[in-house]
């Protein structure tokens, strides 16, 4: 891995760091505005919907110019969303703008890796890239929690600023600066000698091309299974952030600032699993990691038995490690198959469409469960529970955790059975 690769990695890290810190800051801003609890799920939903809506066009956009330039433009869009949040745009809409930039950023980022490296380096590169992305989730979550926490509120009070400012607003200012730093790194990413594909078609033709690319990837046996796994992974991962936040407050009596640390532990475990997979699982053995996904779903259900902070952190690390271990080889396989079938940018756009459709479905179901099945707070509710759920009631955590874990485990069993059938039929390799 050379300097150019690490420039790509650094730019991705800073951009993802800002995305994740902004998510926590936007949550804090919604709480300051006394928004209903289900708005927190909708915040993530609105961020993700851009990936689905823009999917037919994001791949063509990424392939129409040098991908470092495309990444810089997308960081500018994210920056605009952060500034919009500062000047009064509702957090849900402002974070949707950030999602717009992220949706176009992703095909450029992964497409650049696929163009820059030979295919036998893709699993290792994905290990690095997923490790950096998950490190950004860790530090972004911790940074967002710190900037919006009680310590920063006390510091802000001591500053005696001439204008009223909340911790959420201060956090967003810092995050905007991080987006600027990411855009600066994008400027130095090497330009590759690859054939560009100008966006010469209209929206209708581009949509038809995208549908054709999606069909090709879903009809390819290896692409189909890889896509099913990564779609499940990203849908589950996004929902897991919301589940863990509420679980930590209700089961462990954690403050929201402390609860974000558990999300960081999950992310740290994912980074660990990603690095191990990148080091020891070659591309030709990508499907050997499927049992790890089944184990992850089973472990999620055990969250309901945990009331100790140390045990909770250990469990979250193992869940994260299993998820990172099984998704990285399959993500690399998906990129390789997509690159061979249709080109890097178009392939990643199809992948993003399916994965984020999974996020929309699972996060949307979570929001509906929280909105319609939450129960009034009991008389002996803690002060933390009153502060976080007083206006909405307690979310149905037992149903959510059991349903979530069982769904993941069963889906991974079905995918594993399908893989075994493909082996017997001779359309898959072991």
Mind explaining what this structure looks like?
Keywords: Cell membrane, Membrane, Transmembrane, Transmembrane helix, Transport. It is a multi-pass membrane protein. The protein has 430 residues and is mainly α. The chain contains 16 helices and no strands. Helix 2 (38-53) crosses helix 5 (91-116) and helix 4 packs antiparallel against helix 5. The two termini are 28 Å apart. The model has no long low-confidence stretch (mean pLDDT 80).
How would you sum up this structure in a few lines?
This protein is mainly α. The protein has helices spanning 3-32, 38-53, 55-63, 67-86, 91-116, 122-147, 150-159, 167-186, 203-219, 221-251, 256-280, 290-301, 309-342, 344-373, 383-389, 397-425.
């Amino acid at each position: 891995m050379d300097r150019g690769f690490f420039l790509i990695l650094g730019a991705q890290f800073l951009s993802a760091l800002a995305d994740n810190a902004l998510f926590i800051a936007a949550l804090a801003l919604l709480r300051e505005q006394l928004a209903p609890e289900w708005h927190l799920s909708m915040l993530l939903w609105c961020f993700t919907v851009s990936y689905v809506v823009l999917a037919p066009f994001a791949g063509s956009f990424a392939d129409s110019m040098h991908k470092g330039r495309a990444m810089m433009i997308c960081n500018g869009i994210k920056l605009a969303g952060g500034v919009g949040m500062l000047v009064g745009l509702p957090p849900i809409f402002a974070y949707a703008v950030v999602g717009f930039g992220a949706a176009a950023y992703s095909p450029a980022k992964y497409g650049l890796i696929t163009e820059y490296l030979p295919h036998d380096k893709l699993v290792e590169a994905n290990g690095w890239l997923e490790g950096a992305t998950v490190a950004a989730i860790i530090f972004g979550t911790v940074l967002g929690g710190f900037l919006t926490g009680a310590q920063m509120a006390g510091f802000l009070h001591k500053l005696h600023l001439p204008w009223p400012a909340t911790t959420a607003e201060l956090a967003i200012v810092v995050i905007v600066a991080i987006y600027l730093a990411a855009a600066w790194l994008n400027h130095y990413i090497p330009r590759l000698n690859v054939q560009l594909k100008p966006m010469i078609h209209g929206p209708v033709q581009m949509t038809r091309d995208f549908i054709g690319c999606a069909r090709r990837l879903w009809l390819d046996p290896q692409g189909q299974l890889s896509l099913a796994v990564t779609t499940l992974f990203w849908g589950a991962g996004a929902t897991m952030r919301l589940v863990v936040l509420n679980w930590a407050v209700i089961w462990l009596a954690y403050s929201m600032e402390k609860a974000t640390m558990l999300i960081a532990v999950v992310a740290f475990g994912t980074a660990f699993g990603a690095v191990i997979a990148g080091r020891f699982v070659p591309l030709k053995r990508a499907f050997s990691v499927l049992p790890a996904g089944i184990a992850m779903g089973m472990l999620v259900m055990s969250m309901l038995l945990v009331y100790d902070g140390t045990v909770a952190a250990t469990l979250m690390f193992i869940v994260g490690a299993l998820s990172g271990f099984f998704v990285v080889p399959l993500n690399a396989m998906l990129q390789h198959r997509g690159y061979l079938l249709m080109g890097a940018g178009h392939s990643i756009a199809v992948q993003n469409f399916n994965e984020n459709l999974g996020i929309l479905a699972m996060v949307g179901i979570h929001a509906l469960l929280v909105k319609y099945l939450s129960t009034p707070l009991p008389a002996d509710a803690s002060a933390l529970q009153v502060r976080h759920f007083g206006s909405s009631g307690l979310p149905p955590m037992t149903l959510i955790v059991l349903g979530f874990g069982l769904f993941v485990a069963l889906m991974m069993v079905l995918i594993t059975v399908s893989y075994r059938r493909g082996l017997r039929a001779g359309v898959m390799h072991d």
